[in-house]
């Protein structure tokens, strides 16, 4: 295997079981995936299919019941240094409002990255991250969350994730709370980022319609398992699994 073949981040046979015995839920069941620089991979599936559990495993917020996590081919499943890991792998979640402390300005929220960055967290770096998501630092740094629009809040959350210059960004329903036009703007921010910085993005959504706009590869999850995966065009336009067809049927404009 040459070095180019080694994925940036890979999950191998990841499994996470919650509960025991008859009540056990296999929230993620033998899922393998590989993220590469500059690629957007989408995980799509209905509510409860295990998408967020997979995200939390990849973020090392949960320990897998079975399977491995490899960063640059190195097994990091149980290494103790999560701080170093989180400099490489960052996340954005669904509801930016709940992630904010309402009494914190944007400046103060961004300063929390000091935990991971130490003295490397400079004003210039904060400004750079805000500009990367199309915000003017002077406009937003002094504001409180309620003084920002929903789209601005989600951009701030992406900027905060970018502060550490991660190589992987996991976006779990990061656009689901936004209306169609704001969603398109955020999706553009993500696609620009991967082109400019080579960021690998894992985009998680219950809406297969969103998958086709941004992603290079799609994984379809159902009941913790990947039922179908491949290049976006193949999965969207030539789905082999009945479940994928059913998800697509809810997006009539795709085939119209
Ligand atoms: N901490 C937990 N303890 C017990 N069960 C859990 C826990 N977290 C998730 N589950 C269960 O695991 C399954 C997958 O949940 P998960 O949140 O990963 O799905 P999801 O695809 O993200 O759904 P949604 O689209 O609603 O966000 C569900 O059956 C859920 O109830
Ligand atoms: Mg979820």
From TrEMBL:
What region holds the ABC transporter domain? 9-248
Write down the SUPFAM superfamilies for this protein, in alphabetical order. P-loop containing nucleoside triphosphate hydrolases
PROSITE patterns in alphabetical order? ABC_TRANSPORTER_1, ABC_TRANSPORTER_2
The GO terms describing molecular function are: ATP binding; ATP hydrolysis activity
Instruction: Report any Pfam family annotated for this entry.
Output: ABC_tran
The UniProt keywords, alphabetically, are: ATP-binding, Nucleotide-binding
Taxonomically, the superkingdom here is: Bacteria
Keyword Nucleotide-binding assigned to the entry: answer is yes
Record-linked InterPro entries? AAA+_ATPase, ABC_transporter-like_ATP-bd, ABC_transporter-like_CS, P-loop_NTPase
This chain belongs to the protein called Dipeptide/oligopeptide/nickel ABC transporter ATP-binding protein
Q: Which organism is it from?
A: Actinocatenispora rupis
């Amino acid at each position: 295997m040459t070095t180019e073949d080694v994925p940036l981040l890979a999950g191998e046979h990841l499994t996470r079981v919650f509960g025991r015995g008859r009540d056990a839920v296999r929230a993620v069941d033998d899922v393998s995936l590989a993220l590469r620089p500059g690629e957007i991979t989408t995980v799509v599936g209905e509510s409860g299919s295990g998408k967020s559990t997979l995200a939390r495993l990849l973020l090392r917020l949960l320990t897998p019941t079975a399977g491995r996590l490899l960063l640059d081919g190195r097994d990091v499943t149980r290494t103790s240094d999560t701080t170093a890991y989180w400099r490489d792998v960052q996340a954005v979640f669904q509801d930016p409002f709940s992630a904010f402390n309402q009494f914190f300005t944007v400046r103060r929220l961004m300063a929390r990255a000091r935990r991971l960055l130490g003295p490397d967290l400079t004003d210039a770096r904060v400004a750079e991250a805000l500009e990367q998501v199309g915000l003017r630092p002077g406009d937003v740094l002094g504001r409180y969350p309620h003084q920002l629009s929903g789209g601005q809040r989600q951009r701030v959350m992406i900027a905060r994730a970018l502060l550490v210059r991660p190589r992987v960004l996991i976006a779990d329903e990061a656009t689901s709370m936004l209306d169609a036009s704001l969603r398109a703007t955020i999706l553009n921010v993500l696609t620009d980022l991967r082109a400019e910085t080579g960021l690998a993005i894992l985009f998680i959504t219950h809406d297969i319609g969103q998958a086709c706009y941004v992603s290079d590869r799609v994984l379809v999850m159902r009941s913790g398992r990947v039922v179908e995966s491949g290049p976006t065009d193949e999965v969207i336009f030539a789905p082999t699994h009945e479940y994928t067809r059913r998800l697509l049927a809810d997006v009539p404009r795709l085939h119209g």
